[in-house]
Amino acid sequence: xxxxxxxxxxxxxxxxxxxxxxIAVALGLLAAAPVFxxxxxLSVALNLFMSIALAExxxxxxxxxxxxxxxxxxxxxxxxxxxxxxxxxxxxxxxxPLGGIAAGVLALVLGFPALNVRGPYFVILTFGLAxxxxxxxxxxxSAVGNFGRILMNAPDITLLYELMFGLAVLAFALxxxxxxxxxxxxxxxxxxxxxxxxxxxxxVHTAKxxxxxxxxxIPGMVGAVMAMRSAYFEPMVxxxxxxxxxxxxxxxxxxxxxxxxxxLGAALLVGASELLWSHAPEVYNIILGIVLVVxxxxxxxxxxxxxTAWVRRWERRAQ
Amino acid sequence: MNSIxxxxxxxxxxxxxxxxxxxxxGLNLIYGTMRLLNVAHGEVVMLGGYIAYxxxxxxxxxxxxxxxxxxxxxxxxxxxTYEVVFRPLLKKEQLLARVEANSLIIFFGVSIAxxxxxALAFTASPKSYRYLDQMVTIGGASFAAYRLFALGxxxxxxxxxxxxxxxxxxxxxxxxxxxxxxxxxxxxxxxxRINRVxxxxxxxxxxxxxxxxxxxxxxxPFGGFSFTISAFVxxxxxxxxxxxxxxxxxxxxxxxxxxxxxxxxxxxxxxxxYSVFVVMxxxxxxxxxxxxxx
Amino acid sequence: MAAxxxxxxxxSDKVDLLFSPFGTPNHFAVVPILERYxxxxxxxxxxxxxxxxxxxxxxxxPTSAFPDRMAVAIVQLLQAQNYKTAAIxxxxxxxxxxxKKxxxxxxxxxxxxxxxxxxxxxxxxxxxxxxTTIKQAAxxxxxxxxxxxxxxxxxxxxxxxxxxxxxxxxxxxxTYSFFQKRFGANANGIVMMGHWSPHQTAWxxxxxxxxxxxxxFHERPEYFDSALAxxxxxxxxxxxxxxxxxxxxxxxxxxxxxxxTINGPVRFDGVENVxxxxxxxxxxxxxxxxxxxxxxxxxxxxxxxAWAD
Lengths: 319, 294, 309
Known about the structure:
Strand order of the largest sheet of chain A: 1-2
Order of helices and strands of chain A: HHHHHHEHHHHEHHHHH
Mean pLDDT of chain A: 87
Largest interface: A-B, 46 and 44 residues
Number of helices of chain A: 15
Strand content of chain A: under 5%
Number of strands of chain A: 2
Order of helices and strands of chain B: HHHHHEEHHHHHHH
Largest sheet of chain A: 2 strands, antiparallel
Helix content of chain B: over 70%
Strand order of the largest sheet of chain B: 1-2
Distance between the termini of chain B: 45 Å
Structural class of chain A: mainly alpha
Helix content of chain A: over 70%
Radius of gyration of chain A: 20 Å
Shape of chain A: globular
Radius of gyration of chain B: 19 Å
Distance between the termini of chain A: 29 Å
Structural class of chain B: mainly alpha
Number of strands of chain B: 2
Oligomer: heterotrimer
C-alpha cells in the first residue's frame, strides 16, 4: 500500500528559483480565491482545504510510521469543543490555537500509553479512544444542561476560508519538513521494522508520541474553525467516526507516503462528491463507496504513487 | 437499585450477551482467518433484519421462517463480497502488507454502499413488527416470549457453530487457519475454498443475528454501526481469532452493560463500554482468554 | 451540507421557491443562507427555543411544539389529572435535553416531585436496570424524552417489568406508523408530542389529507413531521397563489396573513406560529387524538391501563 521507493529522506537538492515563484503565484491565487469564486465555490474550496489539512496531519504519524489512527476525529472534535466553549469569552483568533494546543495535549496523554500497542490493536484502540472521549463530552454537556451550543455571529466564510487555507498550507509544510527530518527517518524505520529500529538506537516510543502530537495540533485548529463554519456544536456530530474514516480514506487514496498524496486524495474525493451529489444525489454515496473499494484494490499506491510510476515509465521511454 | 441479583437483569444480560456473541463470532471468524476488519458487519445484521421484516409484513411469515432465508441471503452476499473484493486483495502482496488498514477502507466502502442502497430501497424510516409478543413468567419475572426466542436461537447458533468448528473437517481447517494466518494467506487454492466458507459463514451469522435484532430494535439503514462497534469490543475481550473467547466475551459484554448501568446509572453506559474496550487494548490486547503469543 | 445545497440551489440553480430541510440542525444551518440572499422559506420539522433568537423575515416555523411551551403543557396536564410524582428519562440528544431543561423547573414550580430521573446515550441497548428503579419509585407519570429507538426499548421493557403509571409519555416515536404496528393495543394510552390529528373535526382539511396519504402510501402518515411538512407546503402554495413568486411580496404575505392548513388556521408573529396552541397527543384505540389543551382536544385524556398481554 505505501511505497518506500519515492521518498529521499536525507538529500535536499537546491530548489530552482522558477519553481519557488510558481508555487508562490499558485498560493497567492488560491488565497485570493474569494475574489474569483462565488459563495458556493468558496464553500467547496473550504471543504477541500479542510480535507487537505486533516489528511496531511494524519500522515505525520500514520503515513510515515504505519500506525494507522482511526480516531483522528477526536482532535477535530476537541478543537470544535474548545471553540464552542470559548467563543463568547475570548476572541476566536485566540481560541483557534488553544484548540490546537488542547488537541496536542490530548495526543500526548492518550498517545503515551496507546503507542505501546501494536498493529491492528492500535488501529481499533484509536477508534475506541475517540468514541470514549466523545461520550465523555456528551455526558458532560448533558450534565450541565446543554443541548448543543450555538456560535452567534460567527465570522464570514471568506475569513474562514483564508484560515482554512492557511492551515492546509501549514499542514503541507509540516509534513514536508517532517519527511525530510530525522523524525521522519525514524518513523520510516519504525514502519520497516520496529524492533530493528529499536536496536539501532532509535527511541521509538518518543518518535511515535512526537509524531502523534504533531499530527493532532492542526486538526484541533481545523475543528475550531469548522465550529465557526457550522455555527453549531453538538458532540455526536463533531466527534463523529465519519470524520475519522474520511481522513483515512483521503490520505490512502491520494498516497500516504508523501505530502502530495492528500492533495490528490482530497481533490478526487471532494471533486467526485461535488460531481455526484448535484447530478445523482440519491446514489452518490453508493458510488462513492464503490469508488473507494475499486481504488484500494487497483490503485493501492494511491494516485500519487500511480502517477509517479506513469511519469517514470514515460521518462524511460523518452530516453 | 435495591438488588442487582434479579432474574430480570440476568435474563436481560443473557439476551443481550447472546446476541453480541453471535454477531461477534461472525466478525471474529473473518478477522481471525484473514485479518480483515469487517466494518460492514453491522450492515449485514441490518440486512437480516430487513429480510425478517419483509417476510413478516409482506408474506405474513413469522420470524422463525425468516431465519434460514436471512442466513442464505447473507451467505450469498458473503460469497460475492469475497469473490469480487477480497480474493484480489489477498492475492496482491503489497496490499497484504497493510491488510488491516486496506480491508478497513474496503469494508468501509462496502458499508457506505450497503447503507445507502438500503436507504434507497427501504427508505430511511425505521421498521418494526410484532412476533411472539406474549408474556412468559420465569422465577417471578416477566418477559416477552420473543426475548427468550432470541436467546434460544442465538444460543443454539453459537453452540452449533462451536460444534462445527470442533468436529467438522471444514471447521477444523478453519481453526488451523486461525492459528497460522500468515502461512495460509500465501498458500493457494485450499485457503481460497476455506476463505469462501468463512466469509459465507461469518455473514450468515450476522444475517441470523439481524433477524433476532429485528425483534428488539427498529431496523433502519444506518443502525448497524453500533452493532459493529459492540462486536469489536467483544472480539477484543475474547481475543482476536479466539472463537470460544468471542462467545464468552459477548456474554461478558452483555453483563458489563446491564450490570454496569445497574451499579452506576444509564448515562455511563457508553463510557463504560468504551472504557472496557480501551483498558483491554492497553492492558491485555490478546484478550482475556488467550495466552500471549510472540 | 444542507447549507451548501441550499446555497447552490439559490445561486447556481436559481430556484424560485424553497422547501425546508428536515430536522432542527439543518434548519439552523440553512437560515443564515436565507438571510444572506433574502430568500423567504417556510420551515417545518424544527422545534427549539433558539429558533426565536433567529432574525425574522425569511423563515417561519409552523410548529407549536417549542420545548419550553411543551414543558408547560405537560405539567398542566399532570396538574389537571392531579398527578403528584414523576420520573424522567432523557436520551442524550439535543432535542430531548432541551425539553428536560425546561421540564425540571416547570415540575418544580407546580410542586410535582421528580422521584427518579435517568439520562442515557443514544445507542443504549438495554434499560432494565433503569426501568426497575423507576418502577420501584412508583411515579404517577413517566415522562420519556426519547427518540424512536429508545421509545421502542422502553415499550418492550416497561411492559416486562410492569410499569403501571397512568401517565406514560414518549416524546418521539409513537407518531411513527411502525410504533403502532409493533405494539398494537399496548400502544394505547401513550402520550406523545404533536399537534395534528385527523380526528380534529374543527380542521376540515385534516381527515382528507390523512385518507389521501393512506391511499397513496398504504400506511399512516407520521403525525408530527409529515403533518408539518405538508402544512409548510400548504402555506407556501397559498402565498404564491395570492401574490405570485416575488420574494418581497411573499415575505409580506407569509408574515401577515392567516393560512388555512390541515392543522387549522396558522398565523405567524415573527418566526413563531401564534395561532396553534402547544398540544399533547395520545394514542387511543389505535388512533392519535389530541388530549391537551382541553379546548383544542379531539378526545379526553385516558390514563394508561395495564399492559395488554
